[in-house]
Fold:
Amino acid sequence: MSSVILIFGETMKLGELISIISRQTGEAINQSILAESLGITRQTISNRIKNESEVTVSELKRVEEFFKINIFNSMPDIAYIDYYNDVFASCGAGSIVFSTEKTKLPIPVSMINGYSKNKLYSMINASGNSMSPTIDSGDKLIVEHWSGNQIQDNKIYVFCYNSEFFVKRLCKNLDEIIIKSDNPEYRIRTISGKSISDLILIGKIVATVKQLD
Structure:
């Protein structure tokens, strides 16, 4: 399924797109012109507007190229995040990554805890129930990439261990890392000694998106 556009937690409807294009171009854009930009019929546009159809990422790109506009760059509260649709970090027994194909998605910065333009972010999928109820299987997770800073105790991180990706709460002692799940059915684990060097920290979870596609 195509990814839809998310604005301040809500999807953008096709009817709203006409108003946005009109404001950006200073011209009165109608259904026929929008249909031409998307390569579909005016009747299809009319039916989709009637059904409150959502705008997809690919449609937004076509519109921006056709009208020579950039809809989101003029909005300071929007950040484009790399979404790795086929990357799953396990909230359970571990998941192996098979693909790194990505799509750029516009995300309201108000959703991202401690957002900074100087930080790198990406979005991946959660799999499993070990972090329930905080994170459910199928949630989208926004990751603030690790930049060498210390682990903050009891924050949720995504990391790679033994070629598998995990999402867990981490605590750091002098010679061990404590791995916790929010689901009480899962026991606390520790990594110590030389095994600590086998843990590759990817980043900290700074936002959860329940439904995006």
